[in-house]
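Readers of this paper often ask what the protein records in our data store actually look like. Such a record has a labelled line for the sequence and another for the backbone structure tokens. Nothing more is needed to write down the fold, since each code stands for a local backbone conformation. The record that follows is passed on verbatim for readers who wish to inspect the format.
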Amino acid sequence: MNIRDIDFKDGLVPVVAQDLRGRVLMHAYANEEALGRTMDTGKAWYWSRSRNRLWMKGEESGNIQEVLGVFTDCDRDSLLYVVRQKGNACHTGSYSCFETVVSGDSQGSTRIPEHVMEEVYRIITERKRNRPEGSYVSGIIDDDARLVAKIREESHELIDAFNGEGDLVWEAADLIFHSLLLLANRGVEWTELTDEFERRRK
């Protein structure tokens, strides 16, 4: 299919960016040149209506989108970028721009079950950056010796639970949580971890 087959109304076409797990990240617009650059470079390019110029996602923040596929709908008047997102997609610091509930959850929670660990990791990295007073994460995140000691402790407690001496799920969650702290301590991106799991599921 040729780029010229896309219906650019008033020179633009709406674009939705979605990650490999199907989570919608953001909505923007592209013109023919932005789409061409996206297809040529493998990075997401858009047209900014407010700044009236082309822009590459992450050109300032570093939160680039590696485009793995470009799809159009049946009317050829909107696009879907399937991307590997580095860091967060939203300028607010959230992974997705679609975090505000309009309807469907009376508690106002935007958490999707399969993304809970991703949200936990985002909160960990935010607390590492902002250091709120009284936060457990803030107090331990940069203490290498304490982190390593907790990993050892939680590993032993998980083994004990496996042998019937404790709550297996609780202890597994403790070990996973402190493992995430260790990864955040070293500046590992969430997508690095998910990419590794993608490789291992083959």
Q: What stands out?
A: The chain has two domains: 3-85, 113-200. The beta strands are 13-19, 24-30, 45-48, 53-56, 65-72, 79-85.
